[in-house]
Amino acid sequence: MEHRTISSAVIRRLPRYYRYLGELRESGVKRISSRELSERMKVTASQIRQDLNNFGGFGQQGYGYNVDTLFHEIAAILGIDHEHNVIIIGAGNLGQALVNSGDFAKRGFNIIAIFDNNAELAGKKVGNIKISMISQMADFIKKNNVDIVAITVPRQAANEVAKIAIDAGARGIWNFAHTDISVPEDVVVENVHLSESIMRLSYKLKEKK
Question: What angle do CA 186, 187, 192 make, to 5 degrees?
Fold first, then answer.
């Protein structure tokens, strides 16, 4: 397929397509039209066709989409057709919640370690994972093919721990700290600023009144 730049809006919708297609598979649905999918997702049928045409289309006129095929195609587009090793930096409430969530493993994101700088937490378990010290993190990353590093530390420490992880070889940063992280060009950052999300919700509530 010819390389093209895909808009961030399309990329944001892909995980939602994946989720709905997963639900359809679990319900035993074999095929679905863009119109039927639009009714479920509250996205126009033309938008669905436009989005999927960025990657080749996948549908057949008069037949629609094969649910199982499209599910696996979107998984490949998102890079979740294989497993990823993930570590968490920060064993606070958010870090522990990420470890204890079962959804990530179902999608191939294996949380294999959690790190903190509080010596009192060393060796304690979150789920089945023992908390290790940040001083051990660089060696762990180098030895365990870590793909993604989730940062849940206070913002003052975020850039420092990100640098340690990147210098050790990490190339994907999932940033929950309330700050922007400076990274080299070959490192990808996905920022999850919860306070900004709730402020956007507040705006939408205000507009409804």
Answer: 150
